[in-house]
Amino acid sequence: MPPSAELPGFLHSVAPILDRWGYLALAAVIGVESFGVPAPGQTIMVAASIYAGAGRMNIYVVALISFIAAVIGDNIGYWIGLRGGRRVVHRWGKYIFVTPERLEKAEQFFARRGNRIIVVARFIDGLRQLNGVIAGITKMPWKTFTIYNAIGAALWVGWWTTVSYLLGANLVTIIEHAHRYMWPAIGLGVVVVGAYIALHVRHIRRRRARATAAAPIEENPV
Fold first, then answer.
1. Mean per-residue pLDDT for 168-191?
2. Cα separation of 118 and 108, whole Å?
3. pTM for this model (two decimals)
4. Are 127 and 108 in contact (CB under 8 A)?
């Protein structure tokens, strides 16, 4: 395995465990993250993919292990939610930083988006850890959950392993540079959205004004 120095930035934290345990660390960290434990699953998958790009691991094995661990972990979370429900989460969740408030917000978001949120939950921090638990609590049919969960895991693993493998250590530099421009980008987005809303409101007002002007004036009865 490469030395930790080859994984700069936020990836440095997972380098020691990946150096020592390799694929086993990858499976364990992604697996436990997937059923509610706040572990750096996505980070270690990115790190392993960068290692694969340097020839130190096999990218196909990394992707396969990541996918299987994600699916199994989410299914464990599903059965925890189904069998224990909120009682278990409220009693033991504080030990893994899952507070009742955090669970409630995640449930509300989950309920508004429906089954399709299972697919994109993998890309959202917080939902990635509670995805299966919430599906179990809400008693989503297991087959439905399994299908959407597998699709989401495949997309998540496919995206991060491919990007990390191709870009290598440059990915860290790109992310660090992107963070520098995050707030200006958010500000620009707010301005654009605000301008769009203002123009849309003005358009609606003008249309209503034209409709009012074109409407026939009722004559007063004699």
1. 56
2. 14
3. 0.66
4. no
Residues in the chain: 222
| DSSP string for residues in 154-199 | HHHHHHHHHHHHHHTTHHHHHHHHHHHTHHHHHHHHHHHHHHHHHH
pLDDT of residue 139: 78
* Look-up of token digits 């958010």: 186
Q: Comparing C-alpha atoms, which of 157, 147, 102 is closest to residue 129?
A: 102
From the number of C-beta atoms within 10 Å of its C-beta (0-12, 13-18, 19+), residue 165 rates as buried
Token digits of residue 94 = 């504080």
Measure the CA–CA gap between 49 and 53, rounded to whole angstroms. 6
Rounded CA gap, 51 and 179, in Å? Answer: 23
The CA distance from 117 to 113, in Å, is 6
- Which one-letter amino acid corresponds to residue 91? R
CA–centroid distance for 58 within its chain: 25
Question: Who has greater pLDDT, 69 or 220?
Answer: 69
- Looking at residue 27, its amino acid is A
Residue-level pLDDT at 2: 42
